[in-house]
Amino acid sequence: MSDASGRLKRDKRAARRTVLAVRDGLSEQERVARSAAITDRLLALPEVAGARTVMAFWSFGSEVDTMGLIDRLFADERTVALPRIEAGDVVPVAYRRGDAVTATTFGAMEPASGAVLGPEELDLVVVPGVVFDRAGNRVGYGAGYYDRLLARVRPGAHAVAIAFGLQVLERVPSGGTDRRVHVIVTEDEVIRPGSSEGPRSGEVERPVKPWDDARPR
Fold first, then answer.
1. 212 found inside a domain
2. pLDDT, averaged in runs of 10, over the chain (217 residues)
3. Bridge partners of residue 90, in order along the sequence
4. For the CA atoms of 81, 53, 155, 84, what is the dihedral angle to 10 degrees?
5. CATH number at residue 60
6. Is 89 inside any structural domain?
7. What distance in Å separates the CA atoms of residue 146 and residue 182, rounded to the nearest whole number?
8. Dist CA 163 CA 38 (whole Å)
9. Contact status, residue 50 vs residue 122, Cβ threshold 8 Å
């Protein structure tokens, strides 16, 4: 491992540890309320309006709760895929309400069966992560699953991250194989950095009023 590569890994690990400590400190009430606001804001995006096949994910721990999002995607009659780990990668698997799921080693659930979709079939990928910046850079949990998946989706498919505002920093460590997201949705704003290879500054859509007066100061 080169000095630069080792330094990047250490910087990512430090950013991950710092933000997870803050995210884990959210109360369940705060997490539920903020997750609902994020779901509303995500589903109002034009990128979602035009997407028929959406890959979401089954949240775990202190992540943005995705159960409400998945239910509303079903209600909108979208084709929903969830990630399943196969041979060291995540693959999109068609999922319907009530399908059997199994637990992963890290706590999320994944489809136990179902048709595997090609990445080129996805119109939109809802991307998890730990830390993001306003240029669309992302630090995940360290396995590189979504970096590899996003490198294989078709041109024109959208990568939309969901995160609490506390997970968005001005800049995060990023390397040559890391994939940027096109949009970041938080409880407070929609951040549009441009394309995944675009400029390092982004357009920001802000709400007219705060989502919740109970946010921590």
1. no
2. 80 95 98 98 96 97 97 96 94 95 92 96 98 96 92 96 97 88 98 58 39 31
3. 85
4. 0
5. 3.40.50.10420
6. yes
7. 13
8. 8
9. no
